[in-house]
Amino acid sequence: MTVIIPKDVYLTTVAACVRFANKRINKDDWLEVSGIFIGRNEGDDVYITKSHPIMHQELDKDAVIDQYKWSDEDYEALSIIDDEAFSNGEFTVGWWHSHPGFKIMMSHIDIKTTLSYQTNNPLAVSLVFNPERLVRQVELPEKKGDPVKQLEGDPGFKIFSLDDVNKGIQASYHTVDYVINGFDTKEQLVALTHKFLIDITNMFPKDNIFGTYEKFVNNRINELNSLIQGTDEYLATLMREGASDRVYEVLENQTRDIRKFVATTFIKIENIKQFMDYLEYKERDTIIPKIKEILSKWDETIEHLNERLTEIAKKY
Ligand SMILES: [Zn+2]
Q1: Strand runs labelled E in 68-132
Q2: Rounded to the nearest 10 degrees, what angle do helices 186-203 and 247-275 cross at?
Q3: Per residue in 62-118, pLDDT tens?
Q4: Distance 222 CA to ligand 1 centre (A)
Q5: What distance in angstroms lies between residue 24's CA and the mean position of ligand 1's atoms?
Q6: 46, 71, 107, 281: most buried, per Cβ within 10 A?
Q7: Ligand 1 centre from 68 Cα, in Å?
Q8: Residue 3 Cα to ligand 1 middle (Å)
Q9: Integer CA distances (angstroms), 157 to 17, 24, 96, 147, 301, in order
């Protein structure tokens, strides 16, 4: 049995978990996140096609591990996703959750959860991800005091399956083989995902997501405006100093810089749009339209860019 994981499924799961457990958040406040996998089986293999983040735990410092208590809304999301998958010939092939900062294994609660999936679908799997394992490339020891094991090219998770569902919550479990598609090597996977983690940490916050993107868009608009204004002033100075022969060259250079700035901003905005795939299902309806509105301010600014540049060119 092998689980086949496309790159976007992996990144969605990583992003949804890292959003609640990263360097910008105090370690004591890291939260567990859980979601499901949609896909299909071919023989004994599991082909995952989509990862859906569903929920994160409430902050409770006295709580022990595995505090992913799904609300009615979360179960409703699950049934909508499942129905939608069914109409595409797919179904729920497993579930995932994070152990932020603690060892990857299956607790009794995890076994119970996995049992509910595996009873319906014997090939259903359980993925457990620890962002810190991915970042530090170490496996935490079984017992306190034992040495940590150095890893190489590790994606930060393990996949489990119960040995015998008939044993109920007493069931033992084993790890399942997997392949992550879309990367050339394991080392490349880790290197690229580390970069991705930085983007998620900085630009996909758990709180104040609107404020973050509003600030980003406003800063970009202000920077663009000052680049344009700077060009105008630069050209005016050249004229005043009788260096009108340099106007054409300076205008070309300045315009090129402005276009470069616009292109970088475009990439960053496309990234933010991509992050919307990493939201929890219940957030989507309320958050996505608002973010589209925030990002559209940039599009409106860009619409007039050519006019503004032509206007400057005409002046000199
Ligand atoms: Zn767990």
Answers
A1: 91-98, 125-129
A2: 100
A3: 777 887 889 999 999 999 999 999 999 999 999 999 999 999 999 999 999 999 999
A4: 45
A5: 23
A6: 46
A7: 8
A8: 19
A9: 12, 22, 10, 19, 43
Contacts 24+ apart (CB under 8 A), 53-56: 53/12, 53/13, 53/16, 53/278, 53/279, 53/280, 53/281, 54/78, 54/280, 54/281, 54/282, 55/280, 55/282, 56/20, 56/31, 56/32, 56/206, 56/280
Q: For the full predicted model, state whether its pTM sits above 0.90.
A: yes
Q: What ranges do the domains of the chain cover?
A: 2-203, 209-315
Sign of the dihedral defined by the CA atoms of residues 47, 73, 132, 192, in that order: positive
Assigned fold of 2-203: Cytidine Deaminase; domain 2 (3.40.140)
The amino acid at 278? Y
How far is ligand 1, taken at its centre, from the CA of residue 111, in Å? 9
